[in-house]
Task: structure prediction
Amino acid sequence: MDNSAATTAEAALTDLFTGILFEGTAADLLSLEGEVLGAGHALMTRALGSALERLDAALCAEIPSGWHVHDARERTLATTFGDVAFKWHRLRGADGALVPLAEELDLPWGARISPAAEAFLVEAGAEVSYAAASRLLAQAGGPASAPRRS
Result:
């Protein structure tokens, strides 16, 4: 990220967090941190979804010869900071089907958990039950519901 984008993002987060402070909903620093983390994670999930859609559009702008856009599908991916919703396009051609965004990011088409969230669950699952690992991921700011492995 270039310096101007970082400065713009920091200013936007400062405005967001200042709004939380002035709303007065946080009784103390502990609850303030929780609200700030929740707001930041919600913002990150929306921003990542938009960024994925931008990359998908760029990839689909350069469709290989013999391929065409078949459809756009809604996806939700459980990540370490929340559920990221986005659309990706499926292509059809003589050789079958292709999802450019999935290919670009090395993400299995049916994946419902991001690689980072899956790594967290695998590591935590080695220490505690899968259900407990899922609760830990949710407490750390991941998806609110327990993700299922695909």
Remarks:
- Residues 29-60 form the longest helix (32 residues).
- The radius of gyration is 19 Å.
